[in-house]
Amino acid sequence: MKKILVAFKETLIRGIVFMVPLMVILILIDKVLDKLKELAIPIADMLPYHSLFGIGRAYWAVFLILLALGLFMGLIARLRIAAKISNWLEDHLLHRLPGYGFMKHMGESMIGADKGSAYKVVLLKNEDSLQLAYAIEEVTDDLVAVYVPSVPNAFEGELLYVSKERIKETAISYKDSIKLIHCQGRGSKKILSGKI
Question: Burial of 179 by CB count in 10 Å (0-12 exposed, 13-18 middle, 19+ buried)?
Fold first, then answer.
């Protein structure tokens, strides 16, 4: 009975730790969408058509607002001070959120924003098997920090420090590795062919 209670407690805590950042993100998205709706109404009224391609003008107004905000923020992001602020926020706040770094790297890899930032996909040797993992960084000449994702949720996993001899490098793309994890290995033959 005690083992069941301990397992229940650990599962509950893990679920809460995973859920809280997602809830914060969803609340922020909801607030942003509310503000966008307020901004979209006067802009939608100025558009000359009622709908275009079957899409109402309110949606087009939101699209135009997001496009303008994206361009504006892109211009700001080019400034040196913006990079310093962004780095400070990541170092002091965002990287404390569980899974933030992994989600950031995955997002950058998916859109091709910064190909150099995505983690290197490797296979970790475990006795008689190989396990999909990500080489995070070299700690010493022989020790590597490796993130081993859970299946099917890549945002949960373990951080291990292993010797280099236990790591097999691959040519698997970051995007394909995430696909393998989410599909629980389905499509492995096609994705891994010639890459390991």
Answer: middle
